[in-house]
Amino acid sequence: MVCVTLFYDRDREIRGYSLFGHAGMDEKGKDIVCASLSMMAINTANALEKLTDSPVQIVCNEEEALLDVRVREKPDERAVTLLKAMELACEELQKDTEYHPYISLTREEIDS
């Protein structure tokens, strides 16, 4: 199961996300849940770095199947849009009855 955590500040503004684990829906290279989440998470991290002025902290550990992405200061408008798109993608995948068993989605408040 892929464990997705969405991070919010005290104002309920999304500030980042973390993905951990493998979906296990299919074998490596054929798992569409893992591929979908990985593509969205990596693309969002890259876009946050290249297309926004918000400082981003990214921790990636392929051996542990971990990607942790956090905006260190109040996100600019483009960063908020990208993070909300990531949030939406995770919510929609998790709502799907076929994919729901392979995704754990939690929300966590963090210090800003």
Order of helices and strands: EEHEEHE
| Total number of domains | 1
CATH class: Alpha Beta
CATH topology: Alpha-Beta Plaits
CATH superfamily: Cysteine protease Prp
Report the end-to-end length measured between terminal Cα atoms: 29 Å
Coarse shape: globular
Number of helices: 2
Q: Structural class given helices, strands, pairing?
A: alpha+beta
- What strand order characterises the main sheet? 3-4-2-1-5
How would a textbook summarize the main sheet? 5 strands, mixed
Q: Give the integer mean of the pLDDT values.
A: 91
The stretches of 5 or more residues where confidence is low (pLDDT under 50) are none
Proportion of helical residues:
25-40%
Describe this structure in words.
The mean pLDDT is 91. The chain has helices spanning 32-51, 77-95; strands at 2-8, 14-20, 56-61, 66-71, 103-109. Helix 1 runs antiparallel to helix 2 (77-95). It has 112 residues and is α+β, with helices and mostly antiparallel strands. The protein is globular, with a radius of gyration of 14 Å. It has a single domain (2-109), classed as 2-Layer Sandwich (Alpha-Beta Plaits), CATH 3.30.70.1490. It contains 2 helices and 5 strands.
